[in-house]
Write a structure and sequence with these properties.
This protein is of the alpha+beta class and 204 residues long. The chain is built from 4 helices and 14 strands.
Length: 204
């Protein structure tokens, strides 16, 4: 059972640790507009942008390079930089697509990235960052089934940029955009699985 909640609305009469909530006076309150899933104790965002957190995995494009310091375009944030390791063997170039993790956020203005990995070739799409948790799914079940059934390698950035390569990227894109559009629908994981199985079966 899911119900729409708004910021400040109590979702539990006890402290419960979950994304998009805060705890006050031993109660748990929603901090966003979303759908509260009581069974799984999670709030599925319906609107809103991306609020970066330490260790978020993101996907971006290298905008500039100077003295092994790269500026990376994450689409949603003002400034993001990556300081290359002194052991870096293959320097990045402007235009390269990378996956990285957030190491720090300085003065709420600059994201510091690390653990970078270049993503060669492939296709990028951009979705609403608020729908990313639904695209990933609980314990990554949603994105894993898309990858498995389409054969595509998929990296989902918390900033709303998704990179894909190999397999049926077109079908994977269709599934992801359907999830973005129907994130509020119950039983979506099973519906996507059935859609992909039917499409891949018919394509054989």
């Amino acid at each position: 059972m899911r119900e729409i909640v708004v910021p400040g609305e109590a979702v539990a009469d006890r402290p419960v640790r979950m994304h998009n909530t805060c705890i006050c006076n031993d109660k748990t309150y929603a901090t966003i507009v979303g759908l509260f899933d009581k069974e799984h104790n999670e709030i599925i965002p319906l609107e809103g942008g991306w609020l970066p957190h330490i260790e978020d995995v993101v996907v971006g494009i290298v905008k500039s390079s100077r003295n092994s310091v790269y500026e990376v375009d994450l689409s949603y944030f003002k400034r993001s930089i990556l300081i290359a390791s002194k052991f870096e063997r293959h320097p990045l170039k402007v235009g390269d697509i990378i996956e990285a993790s957030i190491k720090d956020i300085e003065d709420r203005k600059t994201i510091i990235l690390y653990r970078e990995r270049a993503l060669h070739g492939g296709t990028m799409i951009e979705v609403k960052a608020s729908k990313v948790p639904r695209i990933i799914g609980k314990n990554s079940t949603m994105v894993n089934q898309i990858s498995e059934l389409t054969g595509a390698s998929i990296t989902v950035g918390r900033n709303g940029i998704i990179w894909m390569r190999g397999g049926d990227v077109g079908l994977a894109t269709e599934a992801i955009l359907k999830i973005e559009d129907e994130a509020h629908v119950a039983g979506l994981t099973e519906r996507i699985r059935v859609m992909l199985k039917n499409r891949t079966k018919n394509g054989e």
